[in-house]
DNA sequence: GGCATATAGTTAGTTATGCAACTATTTTCA
DNA sequence: TGAAAATAGTTGCATAACTAACTATATGCC
């Protein structure tokens, strides 16, 4: 392997691999142990709908950084489980508004507690200034590439 | 949504979503534009083998943070493409050593150049101290959860 | 008004991931 | 020594990701 190649790129495997995978796996495990039968990908959709209900699928694409087919199928699966419904937009017939059902609303408190606990554990021993730097850097990485 | 819920957890979507997805997509796009028909997941296996050839599948699991079935199938696909071979370990008949072919070796220089260029672009405007903090924090996140 | 273009969403095909269950081999230890 | 436990790898199943191609609706502009 040539010298001096890909030194900064070691960050790639760090960004892409370890931390995000570890957080995702732990959260999924905590959901399972609590008897919750949802994936973290499905939960990420619910998370955005709890912040603002009845978003279009396109808006869910933007907020979760997924493409349209991925959202289509996540919403399909959430609909099968009775957690969301598609409603036609009154102003634009191309648009589906994805809205929470009462069943989804009842999941909010428990799943957010589990997510908080997971993040507390993940961030143990890391001070707030460092967390802010990480957020800023990763935002910059995203902006540099988008 | 309850107040004060999941505030630190905003980091979750940052870690798990934006930056890593952006880096992965950009690198994949750069591979495609260069006419390379490999996925970034396959490339990540090759990357570790360029650092040290003929690793066991278990060792690839450890170094790439994947489970055993994922490695089995990535190696299957790399083998189909003629980029690696499985060799039985001389000392332990349970073990497959995964070794690079000459075809894989010829990909090394170009793909590392593309990876370097991608990381240069990703890290534009971010100073080295901040990069070090990000690496440290994400390592800590991983260690906290593993 | 009507045609070209853009936007929202779906479908099909390939690859990848995680879990559970399985086979084969090696190690442990009573 | 021999049975139990651990380790390496594979297979089946479900979910999810990206690309490309598709339908339906809306917008822009002559």
UniProtKB/TrEMBL annotation, chains A, B:
<protein>
    <submittedName>
        <fullName>DNA-binding MarR family transcriptional regulator</fullName>
    </submittedName>
</protein>
<dbReference type="GO" id="GO:0006950">
    <property type="term" value="P:response to stress"/>
</dbReference>
<dbReference type="InterPro" id="IPR036388">
    <property type="entry name" value="WH-like_DNA-bd_sf"/>
</dbReference>
<dbReference type="GO" id="GO:0003677">
    <property type="term" value="F:DNA binding"/>
</dbReference>
<keyword id="KW-0238">DNA-binding</keyword>
<dbReference type="InterPro" id="IPR023187">
    <property type="entry name" value="Tscrpt_reg_MarR-type_CS"/>
</dbReference>
<dbReference type="InterPro" id="IPR039422">
    <property type="entry name" value="MarR/SlyA-like"/>
</dbReference>
<dbReference type="InterPro" id="IPR036390">
    <property type="entry name" value="WH_DNA-bd_sf"/>
</dbReference>
<dbReference type="InterPro" id="IPR000835">
    <property type="entry name" value="HTH_MarR-typ"/>
</dbReference>
<dbReference type="Pfam" id="PF01047">
    <property type="entry name" value="MarR"/>
</dbReference>
<keyword id="KW-0805">Transcription regulation</keyword>
<dbReference type="GO" id="GO:0003700">
    <property type="term" value="F:DNA-binding transcription factor activity"/>
</dbReference>
<feature type="domain" description="HTH marR-type">
    <location>
        <begin position="8"/>
        <end position="143"/>
    </location>
</feature>
<keyword id="KW-0804">Transcription</keyword>
């Amino acid at each position: 392997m040539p010298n001096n190649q890909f030194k900064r790129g070691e960050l790639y495997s760090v960004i892409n691999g370890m931390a995000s995978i570890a957080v995702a796996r732990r959260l999924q495990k905590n959901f399972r142990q609590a008897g919750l039968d949802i994936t973290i990908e499905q939960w990420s959709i619910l998370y955005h709908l709890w912040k603002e209900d009845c978003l279009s699928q396109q808006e869910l694409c933007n907020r979760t950084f997924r493409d349209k087919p991925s959202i289509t199928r996540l919403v399909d699966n959430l609909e099968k489980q009775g957690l969301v419904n598609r409603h036609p937009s009154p102003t634009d017939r191309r648009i589906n508004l994805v809205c929470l059902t009462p069943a989804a609303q009842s999941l909010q408190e428990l799943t957010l507690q589990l997510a908080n606990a997971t993040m507390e554990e993940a961030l143990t021993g890391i001070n707030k200034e460092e967390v802010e730097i990480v957020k800023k850097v990763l935002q910059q990485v995203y902006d540099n590439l988008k």
